C-alpha cells in the first residue's frame, strides 16, 4: 500500500483561514518549515465565508488536535477577538495573523506581517531608513507593515486606506514611533517616493486592476506587493516592465515563516 510519511494519526493540525483561500502559499511553506524541524504537524487551508466567520470559528477551535491558526484576508482584525492574550505587535496594531493554543487551553495571538515585510527588504539589501514611502492599504497586514516600516525611520510615509478612521489611527502611531518621519495622507501616487508598497487586495487572483492610477513608474523605484498569488501582480508586472526593482509577497511570507513557527512551538 502506498502512503505518505509526513502525516498520520498523531499529526498536529494548523490551519490558515481566509476568504478567498486559493491564493495562499502558507500551507506548503509553513508545513515545510515545521517538518524540517521534525515537528509532526501540517498547515491546511480553511475557506471560511466572511458572513460565517463569527459563528464557525469557535467550533473550529474546539478540534482537539488543532494547535494553531493563521489568518489572511479579510480576517486579521476580526480574529483578534478569538485571542485571550496578545503579543506586543498585535496589541499595538489591533490585528493578528497567528493564533496558538497554549498548554492550558487558552489562545494567544500575534501578527508577523510587518516583521516579514521588513525582513524581505533586509534580505535584498534594500534600505528603508531615510527613504520616502507610499503605502496603500491599512488593513491587518497593511497596519503591521506601516508600524514595522515606521520603526525603520523613513524620511516620509504617505498613507492611503478607504477607512479614514484607520488612516487617522496609523498616522498617530507613525508619529509616536518615528516623530521625525513626515506623514502624508491622500490618494496614492508614485511621485516623489522611493518605495511603493501595496498592502491592499487589489490585484489578487484574477483581479486585473492596479491599486493606484498610473500608466508608468519611474525606473529605480522599489515596488512591493503583499499579494502572493499571482506572484507577479498587475502592479509588479508594470513595475518590471518599467525597470523597477520588485519585492514579492512570497518574500514577505518567507520573512515571517520561521518566526511564526517559532511562535507556534514556543513553550
Content of β-strand: 15-25%
Helix content range of the residues, please?
25-40%
Structural class: alpha/beta
Q: Helix count, per DSSP? A: 8
Oligomer: single chain
CATH architecture of the largest domain: 3-Layer(aba) Sandwich
Provide the residue-averaged pLDDT.
97
How many structural domains? 2
CATH superfamily of the largest domain: NAD(P)-binding Rossmann-like Domain
Widest β-sheet, arrangement of strands = 2-1-3-5-6-4
Q: Any idea what the shape is?
A: globular
Low-confidence stretches: none
CATH topology of the largest domain: the name is: Rossmann fold
CATH level-1 class of the largest domain: Alpha Beta
- As a whole number of angstroms, the C-alpha radius of gyration is 19 Å
* End-to-end CA span: 37 Å
Number of strands: 12
What does this structure look like?
- The mean pLDDT is 97.
- The N and C termini lie far apart (37 Å).
- This protein is α/β, with parallel strands linked by helices and 267 residues long.
- The chain has two domains: 12-112 and 253-265, Leucine Dehydrogenase, chain A, domain 1 (Rossmann fold), CATH 3.40.50; 114-252, Rossmann fold, CATH 3.40.50.720.
- The strands form two sheets. The protein has a six-stranded mixed sheet with strand order 2-1-3-5-6-4. The chain has a six-stranded parallel sheet with strand order 9-8-7-10-11-12, sandwiched between helices.
- Helix 7 (234-241) links the parallel strand 11 and strand 12 (245-247).
- The protein has helices at 26-36, 53-60, 88-93, 113-124, 140-150, 164-177, 234-241, 249-265; strands at residues 12-18, 41-47, 66-71, 85-86, 98-101, 107-110, 132-136, 156-160, 182-185, 195-198, 222-225, 245-247.
- It contains eight helices and twelve strands.
- It is globular, with a radius of gyration of 19 Å.
